[in-house]
Each structure stands twice: as structure tokens, then as C-alpha cells.
Write a structure and sequence with these properties.
There is one protein chain. The chain is mostly beta strands. It has a 23-stranded parallel beta sheet that branches. The chain has a 13-stranded parallel beta sheet with strand order 4-7-10-13-16-21-26-29-31-33-36-41-44. Strand 22 (279-280) and strand 23 form a beta hairpin.
Length: 466
């Protein structure tokens, strides 16, 4: 009976969309009106539209009233101003060929609010084909993101977010992010997911702003496929050559040890490509399962910074890739299959956590002249890690070591406990085992430069059986 009622519910939901017919619109005001309804199938005429059309004095005041009322009702209590709101349910929006431009001056139009350009609070919607582009470099008033999905069972496909509008920009996280920051930070991120069963296909976040590309706070069962997170890199030597600006004004101080910006490194101007938080969103819910298939992260601080809590199935990564990131994968409780990445500017992987992870990673050959201290660090317990591929020069795989503070690539890498870990190293990279490693197995093609661990089983792999 339960299955029959579910099937009937799907039929009725589909019928409600079909009854509405295909509605054609050619203005943002028409789109906004229909986005508040239910069961519509909407096609927007291709073209370039200005978000400013919705943000005259009356439009801003209306959105501020909505923001104030909503903040009183949601558990987070956060004031969140939405420029374009999709509050309806079971709608289909074909926005192929549509670009909405947002003048970044409007990012500070909603004072003391977290600003969201496009917010989906409704459920069961599908949006496809939209390009959302920030024009300018003005920063948000109190943080923000280009798009957020808070409703349940929503699907996004073939969407592109071109993100700008943060301050200061050009130093990554070296100047800090919180209350002890060296310079006041006004972040602007890409796409925030806090709903249940959000599915994303072929979505791209191209960021030229300090903030995350895709990030999940309180989202449950989030699925990415063929998605791209892309930032840009900058050499610390270029920062140190400045003769003005916030870094120069603060004598090139950094929040990370040794408290000054270090030469010889490459830093991302963004935060993470794909990132989970333990909880969050308007409902202050614990973040749940995440799956990413054939996704790519390029030139970001961390390609995939993902973990699952003790009540959640492991994060699943299949066929994912990192290119030119500060660090490729920063993982806990993760199953990664047929994934790859370079260690061009920093480690390919940081692996931590007391819940077992199962990792398959190929080390890609691309290198640079920038300082890299390790290909991977592994701590925690019960992990099974297989590394393949090759690169020159060779940098070590560190077993029984932890990332530096916040994973910062110029910070010291110190020992941390690793137990019941099996490392299978088919690369030429050497292995170093710290005295914090215990009862681990190392199968390696490369050398073991140091083994200070206890009860470490070593086996050198025969290339003939590779």
C-alpha cells in the first residue's frame, strides 16, 4: 500500500506540471512571479538579463521585509537576503541560453545580511541551463553566496556560476578568515547546499572570489556528477613583491606559522572546490551523505574537503580529479574509487579520521618549481590506501603524520597516530613512517626512507606481478 501511494503521489505531481503547460517568459519579473508558484513548466527566452531589474528601491525593501520575517522563523536565525527567490514546488525551469548578470554593487545592498543571489527554498524543482555571472569586484556586506539550495528533492543541471565580489582578494586564506584575521574579510562563495536529496549534473562554479565553490552545510544525500569547481592560483613571491595593499601594510604577516607569508609556494585565491561542514543551514541540521562522480576541482585551496559523521555512510568519490590545487583531497571516512590528481603545488592527499577510509588514487605526472613537502600524509585508523602513477621529482608519502594547521602547505607536518592502516604504494615515491604509526602494513614499490613505527609489516612489491 505504501508503495502504491508513493507511485500515485509521483503521478499526481507529474500531472500538476503537465496541466500548467509550458509557460514562456522573457523578463526576470515574470520568472520571479512563476518561481513562487507550484507545478509550472517554464521556459525563458535566451538572452542576457540584469538582476538590477528586480533590485530597485521597492524591490530591495520588499526583500528586506521577507528576510526579517524569515530570520524569526528559522532555527539558524540568520538574516539572509535573496535577490531571486524560488519558493514554489514541483516546477521545471528551462533556462538554457539565459544569463543573469549581477552588478556586484548590489552585494552590499542588503545591510547586515548574508546575501544570496538565487535562493531555492521550494522542493521538487528542476532548474537547467542558467548562467549566473557577477559583474564587478565590489564585496558583500556580510558574506554571501551566488546560489543556495535549501529545499528538498531539487535538481540542477548544466548551470554555470561565475563568481566575483570578495575582499581582500589575492591572498587566499593567508590573512585569516575569522575574528583574528589580519584584514577584515568579506567572503563570497559559489553554491551552498542545505537541502535533502539535492542532485547536480554538469554544474560549474568558476570563482574569482574568496569563498568555497560548492559547499554543503546541513545537506543530506547530496549527489554531484560531471561538476567542475575552478579557481585561480597566485605565487607567494608575487604577493611579497607588492608595494601596497593589505599584505604590504601588515608587513606580509600571515595567520599561519611562522606568521609571515613564505616565499616559494603557490596559493589558491579561493577556498575549497567541494567542501562539507559538519552541520548548518537554516535548519541547523547535521550534514549527511555526499557522492561525487566524475567531478573535477582545479586551482582551489582543497579540491575535495569532505568527511562523513559517525551516523552517515562514507563519502563516495568515483572517477574524480584534482588539477593544480594547493592540496587535492582532504578526506575523512571516504570511499574513493579510480580518482586522480597532481601534487603540483602541494600534497595530493591528506587522510585523517578514526573511521576507516578506502582510497584509490593515481598520482598524475604534472609538477612545478614550487615547494612541495609531501605527496600524501596519512593518520587515523583502519584505512586502506592504494596509490598508483608516477612523477618527478619524488616527494614522500608520510604514514603517521598529520596536516599542518588548517592543512596549510607551508606549515610543519608533524607526527600523529596511525594504526591498522594498509598502504599499497605502486608509485616511485618513497615512504616515511613516523614513530606514531603502529600495527600498519606497507606494500611499496618505492623505497622506505625511514621506519620509526612499531609493528610495521613491510613488503616490497615485485614489478613482475603489478
Amino acid at each position: 500500500m505504501k508503495r502504491l501511494s508513493t507511485i500515485l503521489g509521483v503521478i499526481l505531481a507529474t500531472a500538476s506540471v503537465a496541466v500548467a503547460g509550458n509557460i514562456h517568459v522573457s523578463s526576470l519579473n515574470e520568472l520571479a512571479r512563476l518561481a513562487a508558484g507550484n507545478g509550472n513548466a517554464v521556459t525563458m527566452a535566451p538572452g542576457v538579463y540584469q538582476m538590477a531589474d528586480l533590485l530597485n528601491e521597492k524591490g530591495i525593501a520588499k526583500r528586506m521585509r521577507w528576510t526579517e520575517k524569515r530570520a524569526e522563523k528559522i532555527p539558524s536565525g540568520r538574516k539572509e537576503a535573496a535577490m531571486l527567490l524560488f519558493s514554489g514546488n514541483r516546477n521545471r525551469f528551462d533556462l538554457t541560453g539565459v544569463t543573469i548578470e549581477v552588478d556586484t554593487r548590489f552585494l552590499s545592498a542588503f545591510k547586515d545580511c548574508y546575501t544570496i543571489e538565487l535562493l531555492v527554498t521550494g522542493s521538487g524543482n528542476a532548474l537547467k541551463g542558467l548562467t549566473l555571472t557577477d559583474i564587478g569586484t565590489e564585496a558583500t556586506s556580510k558574506g554571501g553566496t551566488s546560489m543556495a539550495v535549501y529545499g528538498d528533492d531539487n535538481t540542477l543541471s548544466n548551470m554555470t556560476l561565475n563568481v566575483r565580489g570578495s575582499s581582500p582578494y589575492g591572498y587566499g586564506d593567508l590573512l585569516g578568515k575569522g575574528g583574528k584575521s589580519i584584514a577584515r574579510l568579506q567572503k563570497h562563495s559559489g553554491l551552498l547546499i542545505s537541502g535533502i536529496n539535492t542532485r547536480l549534473f554538469g554544474c560549474h562554479v568558476i570563482s574569482r572570489s574568496f569563498g568555497h565553490c560548492f559547499f554543503i552545510q546541513g545537506g543530506v544525500n547530496t549527489y554531484f556528477e560531471d561538476c567542475l569547481a575552478e579557481g585561480e592560483m597566485r605565487a607567494t613571491d608575487d604577493m611579497l613583491a607588492e608595494t601596497e595593499g593589505p599584505a604590504f601594510d601588515n608587513h606580509f604577516a600571515s595567520v599561519y606559522p611562522p606568521k609571515t607569508i613564505q616565499p616559494g609556494y603557490m596559493k589558491s585565491m579561493q577556498e575549497c572546490g567541494f567542501r562539507t561542514y559538519g552541520s548548518g543551514g537554516p535548519e541547523q541540521r547535521t550534514t549527511g551523505k555526499v557522492t561525487a562522480v566524475n567531478c573535477t576541482a582545479k586551482n582551489v585551496r582543497v579540491g575535495f574537503a569532505l568527511h562523513a559523521d559517525e551516523l552517515t555512510d562514507p563519502v563516495e568519490l568515483k572517477g574524480c580529479r584534482t588539477i593544480g590545487c594547493e592540496r587535492g583531497y582532504f578526506l575523512q571516512k571516504t570511499d574513493a574509487e579510480a580518482c586522480s590528481g597532481d601534487a603540483k603545488y602541494g600534497p595530493l592527499m591528506y587522510l585523517t579520521g578514526e573511521d576507516p577510509s578506502h582510497i584509490e588514487l593515481e598520482v598524475l605526472p604534472e609538477t612545478s618549481d614550487k615547494t612541495v613537502h609531501a605527496v600524501a600524509t596519512i593518520c587515523g585508523q583502519g584505512h586502506q590506501v592504494t596509490l598508483t602513477g608516477s612523477r618527478e621529482p619524488r616527494h614522500p608519502i608520510l604514514l603517521g603524520y598529520a596536516p599542518g594547521p588548517a592543512g596549510e602547505i607551508s606549515c610543519p607536518i608533524n607526527p600523529r597516530g596511525a594504526s591498522n592502516v594498509t598502504l599499497t604504494n605502486w608509485t616511485d615515491m618513497p615512504v616515511i613512517v613516523s614513530d606514531a604509526a603502529w600495527n600498519c602494513t606497507v606494500n611499496t614499490k618505492g623505497s622506505v626512507e625511514q621506519n620509526d613505527g612499531q609493528q610495521i609489516t613491510l613488503k616490497f612489491l615485485d614489478l613482475a606481478v603489478e
